[in-house]
Each structure stands twice: as C-alpha cells, then as structure tokens.
Recover the amino acids of this structure.
C-alpha cells in the first residue's frame, strides 16, 4: 500500500482525497519508481480543483512531475537505483502521476536526474522550470542575443517566469518582468530582473502595432498579454509562447509578423522529444544557481497538496511548490 492523492468522478461530481492505494492498482509501465518529490503546477491545480477538464480518465493520481529512484525496470536505459525525473507525457491526465509515493511509468518518458541538483531541487524546477529552459533555448536558437535589447518575461512571479528570469539573466540578457504583484519587485530583482512592469499595461486590448521595445519575449499568459507582447516586439524579434494563464485566445493581428518579421515560437513541454528535454536540463544544470531555488520554492507535505492547489488557482502562490510525498 502507498499514499496517493486520488481524483475520482461519479455522476459528473468530482471528488479528491488522500488515500491508501494497493500497488496492484498501478497502471502499466516498464519502470516502477519510489517517488521522493513531486510538485504542484498550474495543470495540477486545474485537475485537483476541477476548474478545467484536464483529467481524461478516472480514477486519476495527479502530478505531472516527479523525481525518484528506480525500484524495478524492464527498460534497457534504466536499472534499480537510478535517479530519474519525469515531466509531462500526459502523466497526471491520462496516466497516474507523481502525487503519490509510488509510480509506474514508461522508461521512454524519463530523463536522468542531473548531478547538479538534489531531488527536491529538481522539483523546485519541475515542468515550469523545464518549460522556461525550453523557451530560453527557443529564443537563443532563433538568434536572439543580449545586444539586441530587453527580454520581456510575462507572469514573472510564476513558476515558468521565475526560472526564465534567472536563466535569461545568466545568459547575459537584460530582463524585464511583468507581474500583477507590485510587492514582489524585490523577489524578481533577486532573480535577476533589471526592471518590473505592471501586467495591467499588457492585459487589455491594444493597438495591432505598438512602440518597439522587446528583442524577445517569454510568455506564459496568452490572450491580450501575448497579443500586446507581439505588438511591442522589435523588428526581427521572437516570442516564445508556452502558457495560457490569462486565456487560450490570441486576439491579435498579423501585423507584427508581416511588417516586423516577428516570430511566434510555440513551446510544448508535454510531448517534447528526448533531445530537447536533455538540452533544457543541461541548460538548467549549467546556468541555474541552486541557491535561487530556495528563493523560488516552498515545500509542503502530500496531505497539504489539495488545499495548496486551491491557493494556486486563486493566485496566492509565488514561484514553485515542492511536494514531499513521503510526509
């Protein structure tokens, strides 16, 4: 038996509880993992609170991230004792996830835990930080360089934004963070932001083309924020879009793209192949100061995760939440 958060649904009524689960109920997979830590991401918040139908079958253990130790393996890449990380792949939506003490997964979904990080630190990074690294990789591959101008990070106090600010600063960029939490300016400065703007300046309908400012953008917000960010991006600049905290709509025009050559780079973390995953984790291991993770992250127990998910959806959470599944 092991402890797990379980989401179930009866007659369109969702229920969530911490339960004791028999290991015989674990789903199919060729690697069994003793989980050490998981996290709470925005998608986990949606799943646990039921605010969006992200869970595709029931019952479901949420948690799109985990780190732990391989107990048994029928996969050629992994052996008992290996330290591994899981991000995405539909885990926590269609396959039991990380908010449990034990997980059974496909070995193809796993990457090795970088030696630079402890398990808790890897989950302080989690899908949010891994996505931030994918965004930075996308901007760099698009040819955006520090001498071209400022980089905007929207939702800067969130999980993606926090890590993006730190990574971009380390890569030599001048970073401006957008947030609705004016009281968190010192937090963003500590991470490496050179300045902070109010998210209200981006969150309402704006002109199709606006004054050019940004050489690049990391956006986890979507909707009007993304549209305005594109409208303010400089000629030849690039915008890496990875989220929809404000909305899934994109109320924009083609003007920035056909008149300024702005590139909109879609960044997916869920189904990304292994090569970009490894590149993202390599960047994190190289460029992210582990000491900053103490600033970014808060640790909770598995029993606290359900209430914390509500706080996350209510916008009461800064940075990252690590879940110690064994307490």
């Amino acid at each position: 038996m092991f402890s797990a958060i379980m989401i179930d649904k009866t007659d369109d009524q969702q229920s969530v509880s911490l339960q004791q689960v028999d290991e015989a109920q674990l789903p199919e997979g060729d690697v069994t993992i003793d989980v050490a830590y998981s996290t709470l991401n925005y998608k986990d918040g949606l799943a646990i609170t039921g605010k969006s139908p992200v869970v595709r079958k029931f019952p479901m253990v949420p948690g799109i991230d985990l780190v732990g130790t391989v107990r048994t393996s029928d996969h050629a890449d992994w052996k008992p004792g290996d330290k591994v990380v899981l991000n995405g792949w539909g885990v926590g939506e269609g396959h039991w996830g990380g908010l449990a003490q034990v997980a059974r997964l496909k070995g193809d979904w796993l990457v090795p835990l970088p030696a630079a990080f402890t398990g808790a630190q890897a989950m302080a990074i989690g899908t949010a930080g891994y996505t931030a690294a994918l965004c930075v990789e996308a901007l760099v591959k698009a040819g955006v360089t520090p001498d071209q101008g400022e980089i905007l990070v929207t939702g800067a106090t969130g999980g993606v934004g926090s890590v993006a600010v730190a990574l971009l600063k380390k890569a030599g960029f001048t970073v401006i963070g957008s947030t609705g939490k004016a009281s968190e300016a010192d937090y963003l400065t500590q991470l490496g932001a050179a300045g902070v703007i109010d998210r209200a300046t981006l969150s309402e309908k704006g002109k199709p083309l606006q004054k050019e400012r940004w050489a690049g953008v990391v956006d986890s917000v979507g909707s009007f924020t993304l549209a305005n960010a594109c409208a303010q991006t400089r000629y030849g600049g690039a915008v890496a879009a990875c989220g929809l905290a404000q909305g899934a709509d994109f109320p924009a025009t083609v003007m920035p793209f056909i008149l300024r050559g702005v590139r909109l780079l879609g960044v997916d973390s869920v189904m990304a192949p292994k090569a970009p995953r490894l590149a993202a984790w390599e960047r994190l291991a190289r460029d992210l100061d582990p000491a900053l993770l103490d600033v970014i992250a808060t640790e909770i127990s598995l029993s606290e995760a359900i209430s914390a998910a509500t706080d996350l959806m209510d916008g009461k959470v800064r940075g990252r939440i690590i879940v110690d599944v064994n307490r």
Q: What stands out?
A: The mean pLDDT is 95. The first strand starts at residue 2 and ends at 10.
